[in-house]
Amino acid sequence: MQRISEPELMEAAAQARAYAEADFEEANSLFVDSFRVAFGADLRGRALDLGCGPADIVCRLAQYYPQLRFDAVDGAAAMLKWAERSVAGYGLGDRVALLQRHLPCHDLPAARYQVITSNSLLHHMHDPHDFWAMVAAYAGTGSRVMVMDLLRPASLAAASALVAQYAAAAPDILRRDFYNSLLAAYRPAEIVRQLQCAGLAQLEVGVVSDRHWLVGGRLG
Ligand SMILES: C[S@@+](CC[C@H](N)C(=O)[O-])C[C@H]1O[C@@H](n2cnc3c(N)ncnc32)[C@H](O)[C@@H]1O
């Protein structure tokens, strides 16, 4: 099935609210657990999260890694309002900075980050090479990188089936966004080519659920 792109930013208040209030426990735990297994418990320095949304993953990582300071970036003010609540709720205001930027951008506070994470952003971006170029630009030797996103199903019917399976009770707006996101997502073979173009071929690509791929590794 051909990819069908969707709008980049999640700027509508109702859309941001539905996303922030949704139950992403399974996917967010998958991300955080995969990160901890891949990189262990002893990380320090600066971390960058691209497309942080309501910042649940950022806050969980920041809680687990007290020696990391996060810059969490999103282009949507509506989403960053929910991120503010999350950061305040976790009491992480001293270690998590929320930044409004439309990616790609080149003016982040640090030149290099020891950790770069991103979940469910890539499929929003109109040019995937912009995303990987940012990862390459802000990573340095030894940086840990973890990126997860949805996997485009083989057909519209398969996309509908995933929405029915995982979002049956969700509000319409969230079901619509999930469906559109599945259609806009990339396949692992496409990710492999994108990584090669960005000079990031050393990162490993794997399929980690019936609807997610994950890229991870430590850059040499
Ligand atoms: C599906 S949400 C994922 C949020 C979060 N990473 C999570 O896992 O819950 C995607 C987020 O990326 C943001 N986004 C999409 N395209 C963007 C761009 N070009 N620049 C900055 N943010 C972007 C959206 O506003 C939205 O908050």
Series of H and E elements: HHEHEHEEHEHHHEE
* CATH level 4 superfamily: Vaccinia Virus protein VP39
Binned, the helix content reads: 40-55%
Unreliable spans are: none
**What ligand molecules are bound, each kind once?**
S-adenosylmethionine
- Could you tell me the CATH topology label: Rossmann fold
Overall pLDDT metric: 97
What oligomeric state do the depicted chains represent? single chain
Sheet with most strands: strand arrangement: 3-2-1-4-5-7-6
How would you sum up the major sheet? 7 strands, mixed
Assigned CATH class:
Alpha Beta
Number of domains: 1
Radius of gyration: 16 Å
Structural class: alpha/beta
The total count of helices amounts to: 8
Distance from N terminus to C terminus (CA atoms, Å) equals 35 Å
CATH architecture level-2 label? 3-Layer(aba) Sandwich
Outline the structure in words:
The protein is α/β, with parallel strands linked by helices and 220 residues long. The protein has a single domain (13-150, 186-218), classed as Rossmann fold (3-Layer(aba) Sandwich), CATH 3.40.50. The protein is built from eight helices and seven strands; from the N terminus they run H-H-E-H-E-H-E-E-H-E-H-H-H-E-E. A seven-stranded mixed sheet has the order 3-2-1-4-5-7-6, with helices on both faces. The longest helix has 15 residues, at 25-39. The model has no long low-confidence stretch (mean pLDDT 97). The structure holds S-adenosylmethionine (SAM). Residues 8-10, 24, 51-54, 56-57, 74-76, 79, 102-103, 119-121, 124-125 line the site of S-adenosylmethionine.
